[in-house]
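Pipeline run #58 for the internal structure catalog. This entry was flagged by the ingest filter as a single-chain record with no existing model, so it goes straight to prediction. Upstream metadata was stripped on purpose; only the residue string is passed forward. Reviewer on rotation: M.T. Logging verbosity set to normal.
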Amino acid sequence: MILLLLSSVLILSVLAGWGKIMESFTGSPFGGISGNILTGILGLSLIWTVLAFFVPINIYVEIPFIVSGVFFFFKKKLYQKINSFSKKDILLIVSISLLILYSSSFYPYILDHFGYYVPTIRWLTEYGLVKGISNLDFTLGQMSVWHIFQSGFSGFSDPFLRINAILLIAYTFYIVEKKSWIQLCFIPILLLFSQSPSPDLPVITLSLIILNEIMTGNKNISLLFAYAVFVFSIKPTMIWLPLLVFLCSVFVFKPTYKNWILGTGILILFFIKNIWTFGYPVFPVAIIDFGFSWKPNPEVLKISSQYAVQKTYDMQYSYGDIQKFSSYDAVRNWFTLEGIKSKINIIFILSLAIFSVFAFIKKKKIISLICISILIKSILVLAFSAQYRFFIDVFFVIAFILLIHFSKRNSLAIFSVTGILVIGILSFPNFIRQYVPSFRPGNFMAGLKKEQLYKPSTYHYNKFETFKTGNLKFNVSKNYPFNFDTPIPAISAGYIFDDAKAGIFPQYIDGKNIRKGFFWKKLTPEEEKEVQDIIHTIKNTDK
């Protein structure tokens, strides 16, 4: 926790400094220290995404950006902006920041941390963006912009990968600066995402900030659209946000082509990044086929699509069973899943219904546009893969709009009660295991360790086996499904099984240069035997 505090002070200074640099080119979406920090996040994320095509985002990239950011922070005397806060506001910010730092010091427990976030960051810091990497391990084809941003600070300023905690502190600055007190109520829930570089936290916080700016009359559509597209580039399920800003520009503000220039540039960069790593513009959807040689095998895409359908039903039904559902069965079974997820699904649909009625009664143009955008996003998610993690942001948006005028006193009261509850769950997770056994992440919470008061808790495993097929020599984690600290190139065992099922296997485009990427090739009879031997070894090891 102490090391995380030092890291936060350093990185926030760097972000504010770089925000001031970027404002010379883009302007500022809003004033205050939070505006500087958020502009810095946008700027560094885009710069590092471009650099990642050419070089690893490692400590040699990190150091000059750290030095220059700190230099401009002091040169522009940005620390003086802290003086604009009252003593009560400073006390509130410090108190919330300490709560954030404490919460983020716990062991990571989100499974994607081990199977997706950390492996992605390892590739980015060692090689940058690698062409066709989805052929090696399908999940890596996402390469979220948020993980590129995290990579840029993972050398020495944030080696524990707690960038989400730092964003939450910046979010606290924004809440206090803008007096948007209802957003205090969201922080305790977001604390559950602070131990990992989960893309869910930045897309929720940034979307609420953009939403608040729209509701309070910010007419800087060019930057708001750019930030909305940036949020979309972090997680494409946030498609409702750029759609909302676009609709507001057309129906509320005066539209002009200049409003779209920066945002369109970010969108093009997002498409190019995905094409480079995945072969198609939007991961994991195989649409708009340019015929690139490194695109995934159709059978692997089919397996991924089937898995997404099964995840809609929390893996409680086989894909074959789901295909046999009538329309009535599909809806009924989604609402009657075992465990907490059925309750979340029901609340989600009820929330959409309540918000639609609210928008109809209010008859305010902006609220109606928000409702339309949310409904379009919800329909797309329900059609693709109706997992609660894809529509969790909708709950925050609806709560924000319905309770936007919540008082500071009531917000602080709710924040205090829910904050204590979340801290209790993180510190003593047996409570949630006992009373909400279907909340699976609770099974992976480790609870309070005294060592975390000095530095954030992290796991180390580093047990693996090495295999070779064709020109690809790779590693597989031993007795564990994820490769969070397995030396790269590493493949998850599950994807080896999928590749074998499809009769293919990844290979280097150039065996002497990993950065040139991966493609898939049909297995020869000899290679099929090699892969089956590998699978046999993995299964026997797991036993």
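catalog note: The chain has a mean pLDDT of 91.
catalog note: Residues 2-26 form the longest helix (25 residues).
status: ready for reviewer M.T.
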